[in-house]
Structures are given as structure tokens and as C-alpha cells.
Write a structure and sequence with these properties.
By secondary structure, this protein is mostly beta strands. The protein has strands at about 10-15, 20-25, 30, 40-45, 60, 65-70. The two termini are about 20 Å apart.
Length: about 70
């Protein structure tokens, strides 16, 4: 698990050199997880927002993202 904001969970999965970071907001409010953002793009978002773009470090309420290295 990665260190992140209260109400969120973040972790990384690796398979050889392939790495993905997953971040989930379990709260009913937007959260800032900027410390997890540098160098990552949104590969998949639970609501489709921001896919293919650099991760800005913000999650909407009840949102989850799968991040890939930029």
C-alpha cells in the first residue's frame, strides 16, 4: 500500500517491468492525492474522466483510477 489521504487506498502492481498504480476514493467528497500524481497518466477511470491524460492528483467522490507511467 502507498501512503495517501484518509478515505483513499492506493497501491502499485508490477509484472516484470510493467507497473500500474491504482487509487480509489471511498469517500463522498473529492480528495487531493497530488503526492501520487507525478509521472503518471490515467489509463482507466471509473467515470471515464481524464483517461489518456496526465493524472492531476485529484479524485472525485467514489472515483477510482488505474495509472500508467507517463
Amino acid at each position: 500500500l502507498l501512503d495517501t489521504t484518509t478515505g483513499t487506498v492506493a497501491w502499485e502492481r508490477t509484472d516484470g517491468r510493467d507497473v500500474r498504480r491504482l487509487v480509489v476514493n471511498f469517500t463522498d467528497a473529492p480528495v487531493d492525492v497530488a503526492g501520487l500524481a507525478d509521472g503518471w497518466i490515467v489509463e482507466v477511470a471509473s467515470d471515464g474522466r481524464g483517461e489518456g491524460e496526465p493524472f492531476a492528483g485529484h479524485l472525485a467522490s467514489d472515483q477510482a483510477v488505474v495509472l500508467a507511467p507517463a
